[in-house]
Amino acid sequence: MSKLRYAKQTDPNQGDIVKALRKINGIKVQTDCDDILVGYKGRTYWYEIKESPTSKVKDSQYKLLQTWTGNYLFVFCLEDILEDIGISKRTPERLIFTPIWHALIRDGQTPAKANKWASRAVTRKVNHERHKMPTVCGYGSNNRHGMPKLQRH
Predict the structure, then answer these.
(1) Can you tell me the distance from the alpha carbon of 46 to that of 146, in angstroms, rounded to the nearest whole number?
(2) Cα 130 from chain centroid (whole Å)
(3) Running DSSP on this structure, what letter comes out for residue 153?
(4) 86-91: long-range contacts (C-beta < 8 A, 24 or more apart)?
(5) Domain ranges of the chain
(6) 20 to 30 Å CA-CA from 60: which of 109, 118, 126, 141?
(7) CATH number of the domain at 1-88, please?
(8) Crossing angle, helix 92-106 and helix 78-85, to 10 degrees?
(9) Is 60 exceeded by the pLDDT of residue 82?
(10) Percent of the residues in the chain that have a pLDDT greater than 70, as a whole number
(11) By the 8 A CB rule, do 102 and 73 touch?
(12) Could you read off the pLDDT of 84-96 as tens digits, one per residue?
């Protein structure tokens, strides 16, 4: 059986996140092992706190992310944790960014590249939604000229 690992160095934002979590009823936080364990409604969540999406990820963290079958995520702020455990809802941008970022990290990308590609995906989606032509009366979709397609009944 392996020994319990203790974090050698904590990220600057970890203290603030832990303090805020401990103020929420029903949440228990354990901090003396790899970053934090959060207990909520009978489930345990394991989080690796990073200062930003471009922070360095150790080889052991890459391996753990790829092989761990439980809940193990990299988080950057309190909102990431609250969204993951279901206390608050993710913004549309976070719904796109977070899964893409984690998938790229699992595939071995560096955090800087994962941040770059996930941010591009968010930008493309937001721009696409902003420039999408509305459909007329909800029938069909618009063709390339902006005119509604006619549907035969």
Answers:
(1) 48
(2) 23
(3) -
(4) 87/24, 87/40
(5) 1-88, 90-153
(6) 118
(7) 3.40.1350
(8) 90
(9) yes
(10) 75
(11) yes
(12) 888 887 677 777 7
